[in-house]
Amino acid sequence: xxxxxxxxxxxxxxxxxxxxYRSVLQGAGYGVVMASNAFEGLQAFRDSGxxxxxxxxxxxxxxxxxxxxxxxxxxxxxxxxxxxxxxxINKAVEAMRAGAHDFLxxxxxxxxxxxxxxxxxxxxxxxxxxPAPAGPGARAGRAGTDPATDDxxxxxxxxxxxxxxxxxxxxxxxMATAFITGESGTGKELCALSIHAKSPxxxxxxxxxxxxxxxxxxxxxxxxxxIKGSFTGAISDKPGAAAAADGGTLFLDEICEMAPALQxxxxxxxxxxxxxxxxxxxPRKVNVRIICATNRDxxxxxxxxxxxxxxxxxLFVVPVHMPPLRERGDDVLEIARSALDKFAQEEGRRFDGxxxxxxxxxxxxxxxxxxxxxLNVIRNIVVLNEGGVVGxxxxxxxxxxxxxxxxxxxxxxxxxxxxxxxxxxxxxLAEIERMVIEExxxxxxxxxxxAARILELAxxxxxxxxxxxxxxx
Length: 473
Known about the structure:
The protein has helices at residues 15-27, 38-48, 64-74, 89-98, 110-124, 159-171, 188-197, 216-224, 240-244, 260-272, 298-303, 309-315, 331-347, 356-364, 370-384, 397-407, 429-443, 448-455, 459-468, and strands at residues 8-11, 32-35, 52-56, 79-84, 102-105, 178-181, 206-210, 249-253, 274-275, 284-285, 289-294, 318-321, 350-354, 387-390. It is α/β, with parallel strands linked by helices. It has a 5-stranded parallel beta sheet with strand order 2-1-3-4-5, with helices on both faces. The chain has a 5-stranded parallel beta sheet with strand order 7-8-11-6-12. A two-stranded antiparallel sheet has the order 9-10. The protein is globular, with a radius of gyration of 24 Å. 37% of the residues are buried.
């Protein structure tokens, strides 16, 4: 690094981790300024002129996301790498949407830290390789690692995920529309975020809109906006997701749930790059990259007349398929071990991995809910047990019973089987409703749209109920 380059600012409240991170960075030849809380961090940010910040999200005096917003407002060109032991998928998405360049989940190794910093430096100097750190103990980066699996959004080195990551790296620099398919829980929004983060639009906004979670009569307003007084309840102007994503990426999830009338307007938007809010008289030009996703078969939706064929071919430029967890081999164990470490840190407990029996079960289990289901299982284990090696007795009952249903012997019943009423009697109707909805979703691979059709409900109704229960679909 140049001797006159501003130092890296490290804001971390744990003294032991401060020393570890500083030692790694200084050993690689980087200058480091440290702070232990938000107040010190913002003061150091102003005084040091730092352009790269390593920021812990959990500080004693302020939330890290609010600090990040203040830094980016003061110095928009700052590259911020978020660090946290309390990370979740939601937190990662929130941080990236708010402007973070990268996201590190404790515990991470020395190579991952140096690689993140090297990428941050490269991002600040497009077209140049990351400068080689100088000085005693300098390292040349991640020698011996495979860049195909180096993605902060995904864990796993299976061939299936390598293909996904190669596709992401290929499509990210372009303006081509990416069409992501895959079952619920496979990480389609993370795939979209990864494409955005690796694109020239990484500094622009990433706006995500779930077309299945919004009532159809409000969807047009959510996508294209409205002006005050254009309809009952329009008490102020609203820009809409397409305008909010100007200069960045608009991610349309559950695209096959979009109403036909709105599909026509979306096609016009793709053709003209203009948006016209509800009630407005003039369109507005915007510069937006579109990424869309669905857990349905889009070609089948076209054949059924539920999705416009011309819109499909307009969007289906670069398909990216997210493989189900059951097709990712040992990735199941990599994800489970990482989640166990992370959740154990959050809960202040210590676990020592999984027993061979649990590993075998995880590898053979079908995981209809994919990564989301696996993370829920690990969270359940950590919350309900004190620690040690995870054995079969620590697994949630639902995992063992569902495995028996999927893989165990099924004697032919002599009469039609009935639901176990003993499981329902004594529960409120609200509890029974939740049980039925969650089980229906699980039995259809986590697909909200399929469960909605079975239950004869609108997908938006299911999303609202899940949101009310604090369950992320």
